[in-house]
Amino acid sequence: MKGSYSTPEVPASSARPPAPDDGRFTYEWTDYDDRRAVSIDPATFETPVIAAELAATWFQVLTEFGRDESALTTGLVDLLRSIGALPLNDNGKTTFAVRDLRRAHLDLWELNMLARHREAKSDTAYRKVVHVFALLRRHEDDHPGTLHKEVTDRLARQPRLWHHRNDGLPPLSPEETRAWRRWAYQKAKSALTQPDRGITDIDVQTATHVLLSLATGEPPEVLRALTIHDFEATTTTEVEDSLAALSPVDRLAYLAENDLIELLRVRYTKNRAHETYDEVYGRRDTAPFTAFRWALTLNTAARSESGHLSLILMKDTHGTVRQPPWQRAIYRLSEIAERNGLPLSGPNHWARLRKAATTREVLADPRTYLSNGRRHSAKTFFGHYTNSSVLRAEAGRILIDSVNDMFDSAINGPTIVTPDAEQAIRAGADAPGIDPATTSALVAGQLDGPHTGCRNPLDSPYEKKGTVCTKSITGTCFACPNALITLHHLPAALAIQDMTHPDRAADPRTWQTHWKPIYDTITEVVLPVFSPEQIQRARQQANLTPIDAGVLNDMRGVPEAPAS
Questions:
Q1: Helices (H), 373-512
Q2: Where are the domains of the chain?
Q3: Which end of the chain, N or C, is less packed with Cβ atoms under 10 Å?
Q4: Closest to 385 in 3D by CA, of 173, 126, 171
């Protein structure tokens, strides 16, 4: 079942990790080279039997995870204390086992968690319930038939608690981002000139992290997990031939130290999502390329001395090379800001640095951001990230601009005469907005130009009044208020749409200012008036449309200089 700590596929002979002799279950793990431990001692609970049974499953799950899951640990302790508070006699409590657990016991605990959930308006209680339900399902998988049927039925359904949709973390303000980037750049660059490369300076380590976060937009836990084996560098053939005798680690260090990297492949791993993906950075990707090259260079000597594989390293007061203990208070953004006189307002989370990059990516190209899915799925993005005040403001601006563009197209654009309207005009009906003389001339073909009909070629918005329009075969007619478009002009519309497609633009700025209104009018105003069958038939004649696109650069970029 999804969300369950399902039993892994392991040999039947695999033994459950035994509890130590004192009966205490202690799980130990490493957190950025800090040794940590968490324990559950069944003897400290009113119901030691069920505590020992569930603690054994808890220990097994954490061993498989390879890390502590605080919501699971604290949730299990909460459940055991709730059971210990039941009105049972001493003998009932000391013998209470998993097989004695009933739906009422579970409901009582869940309702208490629900009350906390409503008051706190955070996900803490919700996560505890989800994790404990999954743990109980796992225990049943390992020991079939242990849980009462009512309990297993309850565990098969969703908890009563729900996921809170709190406001997302705000990115740093533009002023804060500039200040932090400037400080980090200067700090790291200065360290590169020092004999020890700042290996004992906590702010060199944090500056490196800041540069990587702002440049890549990757989560802090992903950047901190990078090792030297997650990098692959390419260089020129001449340099490559001279490095054949070096190990991969020494080769990478040499290339970074001497600025000989041409392309750098970085493999990112998201442990919680079980995702691994590669990004390739070249010299044109100035910020991430420089940040990674500096990070590799700063720790070359320490890595060679210690054999430690982590990307960002430090040397502690005992002279030991290790990962920075990122979870300690001294590495909090507020502490860094206070030490270095940096501006910082709002929540104290490293992930805010990342949002400066992801927000920039969304605003630059939202379609690519969502279709790529590397940062977030569309569901996650819209559920968690669109509550950013920056994105909301930008979305509002885009919406207003789009409405204004559509209004301008409707008011100032061409007049489209549908096939039904054209037939009615031929039968003698009046056409709103077009005088009778013009409608008669239109259906008789007397107003036809190469691409569209024209109300008055001597009154062009592109020429002096009284001068014949010179734009009739450049595609410009389809955004002109003089244009009259019928089914007869549909092949030309399709030809111009194909020619002015944004993917064909050599200069995006030229396309945006000149060709976008034409392309948008054809795509959003003209074509929707006609049926798919009519469009299909017209497309077969599109290549017969005369088009004067000028030279290629004139059509989609900077005009070429005339021949001398």
A1: 378-380, 389-412, 419-426, 436-443, 490-499, 508-510
A2: 25-155, 174-362, 413-556
A3: C
A4: 171
